Amino acid sequence: MIELPDAVLGTLVSAQCQELLAWAQGGEEPLDRPGGLRWLLAHCDDGVVWGYREGGPWVLSHTAFPEVSPPLLAETLQELRLFGEDEERFVWKGTRGLAGRRLADAGEPDAARWMSDQRVLVGNQLREGPKEGFTLVADGGGTRHAVPLECAAADFAGGLSPLRLELRHYLQSDDATGAVRVAATRLVRVYREEKAEGSR
């Protein structure tokens, strides 16, 4: 197991992974009460599922756009990420069933030992919505997904995607060589980048 000075990294056993999946599907919250988890991203054999929660049960993109987003099923799940500002629970299908890990901040991270990173999400065209907290977006190649954000047509002016996924990289240095590497990464939030005043 990797040791990180600014993070807690732990293994999730199969039963914990099953609990997290059942919770994401509408079941009861796990016994350890992972309260800060706000966003959900699942990759399945038949597509991508996004989700969000606001203190209650998870709301999944399948409910708003079932023609694009598949249901979240154990049989088709490849990987599931539940994440928020402070931690992520990551579950994946392994050769012996579900496996997983928890990666969380340990106090206030030292800026010299972690870094934030933003990725642009696919989708520079609004196709439909918002509906039930989701917006159906697409790109020129026809790729579509229902992001857990309420967007307007003006957000896509200029043909650029305003959709972002924030990641946190935890850094580890080699005492012998002084080299620094990314030891672990987790998702933090999904958001819409605000356009600067006067920009197109």
Walk me through this protein's architecture.
The chain is 8% helix and 46% strand. It is mainly β and 200 residues long. It folds into 2 domains: 7-105, no CATH class; 114-192. It has a 7-stranded antiparallel β-sheet. Strands 8-12-13 form a 3-stranded antiparallel β-sheet, with no helix packed on it. The longest helix is centred in the N-terminal third of the chain and has 11 residues, at 14-24. The termini are far apart.
Question: Would you spell out the secondary-structure blueprint of this structure?
Answer:
Layout (H helix, E strand, L loop, with lengths): L6 E6 L1 H11 L14 E6 L2 E6 L6 E2 H4 L12 E7 L3 E8 L2 E9 L8 E7 L4 E7 L2 E5 L5 E4 L15 E11 L6 E13 L8
Antiparallel strand pairs: 1-7, 2-3, 2-5, 3-4, 5-6, 6-7, 8-12, 9-10, 10-11, 12-13
Explain briefly what this protein structure is.
Helices cover about 10% and strands about 45% of the residues.
* Separation, N- and C-terminal Cα atoms: 48 Å
Task: Quote the beta fraction.
Answer: over 45%
Q: Which overall shape is indicated by the principal axes computed on the Cα atoms?
A: globular
Provide the number of structural domains.
2
Q: C-alpha Rg, in Å?
A: 18 Å
What sequence of helices (H) and strands (E) makes up the elements?
EHEEEHEEEEEEEEE
Please give the share of residues in helix. under 10%
Q: How many beta-strand elements?
A: 13
Overall average residue pLDDT = 91
Low-confidence stretches: none
Report on the biggest sheet.
7 strands, antiparallel
Number of helices: 2
Strand arrangement across the biggest beta sheet: 1-7-6-5-2-3-4
